[in-house]
Amino acid sequence: MDFPIIDFHTHSQREQNEIIEVISLHPGKIKDKKYYTMGYHPWWTLDKLSLDELNVLKSAFLDDPFCLGLGEFGLDNLKGTNIDLQEDIFIQQLTIANEVNAPVVIHCVRAFDRMLRIRASLGHTPCVVHGFVRNKTLAKQILDKGIYLSLAPHEQMNPVFEEMLKYVPLDRIFIETDSETSFNISQRYCIFAALRNLSVEKIQEQMYTNFNHFYSSKWKYHIG
């Protein structure tokens, strides 16, 4: 069986071939997409969410088979409104995810203690921290809590990032481009495969298996 390359998290549709791209949408920001997730990003959300805004998320996930999960949303200590308000908005969206049993894509920048605390008490569906670039120690803490990591390997990685990429269990990760376009998703698969001394085909198979497991409630409708 040939397994597709999956760009687990990106912000625009770039590929015209058999690559599966999951576009991250902020409600109201219309983009070309097929498969997508939807969430109120902390950079662009400055007030607590209204009932109507929360219903946008709920309806997208419940009514559209191409909406695979909710996110990205989360916490950012470098950008966005104050972190306490971000926490309130994060909790609102996690609550909706629990209601509809939606997987969650988390944005987290320098707020991992908060995120892990909230996730431990309120997160009841599969979740992944996307764009993870930190060290092996923090990666283990997150993985030990049952959270996946989504990563974007590239050619000029620092030693700490490279050490983490060599460590992470293959069945707990995804590969993404996010909004960074200097390397496409196929190149990132090749870089990661070389780092782990595995074939690209093996990485494709494992990432597809992970994807099928993470998005199982929706993906089964697309594969029959």
Helix content: 40-55%
N-to-C order of helices and strands: EEEHEHEHEHEHEHHH
Number of strands: 8
Shape: globular
CATH structural class:
Alpha Beta
Mind telling me which CATH architecture this is? Alpha-Beta Barrel
Distance linking N and C termini: 16 Å
CATH-assigned fold name: TIM Barrel
- Can you tell me the residue ranges where pLDDT is under 50 for at least 5 consecutive residues? none
Number of helices: 8
Strand content: 15-25%
Describe the secondary-structure layout.
Layout (H helix, E strand, L loop, with lengths): L5 E5 L9 E6 L9 E4 L12 H13 L3 E10 L6 H18 L3 E6 L2 H11 L4 E3 L6 H9 L3 E4 L7 H9 L5 E3 L9 H11 L4 H15 L1 H8 L1
Parallel strand pairs: 1-2, 2-3, 3-4, 4-5, 5-6, 6-7, 7-8
Helix pairs in contact: 1-2, 2-3, 6-7, 7-8
Provide structural commentary.
With 224 residues, the chain is an alpha/beta fold. It has a single domain, classed as Metal-dependent hydrolases (TIM Barrel, Alpha-Beta Barrel), CATH 3.20.20. Helix content is 42%, strand content 18%. It has eight helices and eight strands, in the order βββαβαβαβαβαβααα. The chain has an eight-stranded parallel β-sheet with strand order 1-2-3-4-5-6-7-8. Helix 4 links the parallel strand 6 and strand 7. Helix 1 packs parallel to helix 2. The two termini are 16 Å apart. The model has no long low-confidence stretch (mean pLDDT 95).
